[in-house]
Amino acid sequence: MVPLPEEPARLEMDHVTVVYGGHLALEDVTAQVPHGARVAVVGPNGAGKSTLFKALMGLVPLYTGQIFIHGQPLGSHHDCVAYVPQREEVDWRFPVTVADVVMMGRYGHLGWLRRPTARDRAIVQRSLEQLGILDLAERPIGELSGGQQRRTFLARALAQEPHILLMDEPFTGIDVATLETTLQVLDHLRDAQVTVLLSTHDLNLAAAYFDQVILLNRRLIHYGPPEEVLTPETIVETFGGQVFWLEPRGEGPRMATASHCCPPEQSVPRRR
Amino acid sequence: MTMLLDWLLAPLAYGFMQRGLIASVLVGILCAVVGCYIVLRSMAFLGDALAHGILPGVAIAYLLQVNLTIGALAAGIAVALGIAFLSRPGTIREDTAIGILFAASLSLGVLLISTIRTYAVDLTHILFGNVLGVSPGDLWLIGGLACIVLTTIVLLYKEFLVLSFDPVHAAALRLPINLLRHLMLILLALTIVVSLQIVGVGLVAAMLVTPSATAYLVTRRLSHMMVLAAGLGAFSGIVGLYLSFYFNVASGAAVVLTATMLFVLVFLLAPRRGALWPRRRSRS
């Protein structure tokens, strides 16, 4: 593993262009994300948020440009990038328990042909505790509620002890308790100097809880602190006509809400 | 009691039955363990295609008068890598690649076999299996290859687990995904070649899928699923062979039908998931 210097900026995207399925999915994206920042990636559906994350994990080739982590090009690192998938990407009928999934976060540290050590098990236990799902450790993932399923994958990301954490739409259709836990985990990650990139449709959450906001619609439209980036003009520029403005009665901030969001989580999960 | 013991021991007086039983148990275990990945990754079609893809290799080996197993091995690995090559990201989908190669190699096999004028007993054995014709040399080959495949699966358990369950996480862990995929295809090809003698080209897919699917219904972890599937596969091999001995029916078919009976029983009666029990209330 390459020794990881603290500076300069942990994550740099330098004129990144990605061609995906024959069309331009990301065009000339340049941004520097500082050490330990918490960044919301905001944009309409098809804006390239998932593609950006795939590029950061090295899953899609870059058409042009480069990505640097700790000043070194992508691919020269061990497993310092963790990813929390969307619910739809997981096969919930797979025979694994919650503890099995969280232990997968340790696999990169274990290396080939090695079995988990006591330390790995302790880290898994701590991650489960932190997400409040220790009592579910031996349950198959298919028997969990939607919120518990999300906590499981967040626990796996914690167990991986990443430097950069990517979360794809973690706030879409979750219950209040899981939202609270997720925000607590984000605070904990900030204390641990973990850089978090999180895609969301929720402009209000982005404004309230994040240091930086990337407005993305194939191109990077704006990048900066939410109070600078989230203005009516930039939001319209990003979302086009897909925004409704809620005018306050009397005093109070104007609220924006984007349409065409993902549908809320179904109350009955898919059949096993 | 003595009668039952006699009934069980009588076939073992024959050397071909001893070898047949050992071979059936080995193949039952091997197919079931490899089959767990086939079932979980919905690759049953791939297993079937690989089995049929072996046919031209066997026919060529027969025409050249070399060991049929070697021909099967070469053809199996060629088809496995061909599927991997055709379904690289950005080209055609994997099931399409399988469909093309499956049909092509089956046709080539049939074409080659049709040029063989003499009636070929060995070839029908490849098609339908001939567990009672296992020679001591065959047994060593089956045992050796089974050891290699099972050891690889045990050693790479966690890598194959994470690749099957969550390929994106496997990529985040910087695992060599393509290498592991190709390795899994080769392990599958080896398994099929080993199984040919017992159940034949036509029934290999059933041995891959049926015991694993049965185990899937009653287990909640991959390791447990593999162990139970191995037990079911071995049990089916033994029971099928006894049925074949006493009722004088085709051994491969008897083994597969035993495995199918076990599946049907578990499917109907499995705790929690059995079709005969009232469905549990959906989770909220």
In short:
Chain A has 272 residues and is α/β, with parallel strands linked by helices. Chain A is 30% helix and 25% strand. In chain A, the strands form three sheets. A six-stranded mixed beta sheet of chain A has the order 6-7-8-3-9-10, with helices on both faces.
Your description of this structure?
The complex is a heterodimer of chains A (272) and B (284). With 272 residues, chain A is α/β, with parallel strands linked by helices. Chain A has helices at residues 49-56, 98-104, 107-110, 118-130, 146-159, 176-191, 203-209, 226-229, 232-239, and strands spanning 11-20, 23-33, 38-42, 64-69, 72-73, 81-84, 164-168, 195-200, 212-217, 219-224, 243-246, 255-258. In chain A, the strands form three sheets. Chain A has a six-stranded mixed beta sheet with strand order 6-7-8-3-9-10, with helices on both faces. In chain A, α6 links the parallel β7 (164-168) and β8 (195-200). By secondary structure, chain B is an all-alpha fold. Chain B has one domain (16-265): ABC transporter involved in vitamin B12 uptake, BtuC (Orthogonal Bundle), CATH 1.10.3470.10. Chain B contains 13 helices and no strands. The longest helix of chain B has 42 residues, at 177-218. The chains are: A alpha/beta (272), B mainly alpha (284). The A-B interface holds A 57-59, 77-79, 81-83, 85, 89-91, 94-97, 100-101, 104, 107-108, 110, 112-113, 140, 143-145, 156, 160, 267-269, 271-272 and B 40, 155-156, 158-159, 161-162, 164-166, 168-169, 171-174, 216, 219-222, 224-225, 273, 282-284.
Unreliable spans of chain A are 260-272
Return the string of H and E elements of chain B: HHHHHHHHHHHHH
Number of domains of chain B: 1
Mean pLDDT of chain B: 85
List keywords for this structure.
heterodimer, A: 272 residues, alpha/beta, Rossmann fold, four-stranded antiparallel β-sheet, disordered C terminus, B: 284 residues, mainly alpha, ABC transporter involved in vitamin B12 uptake, BtuC, 13 helices
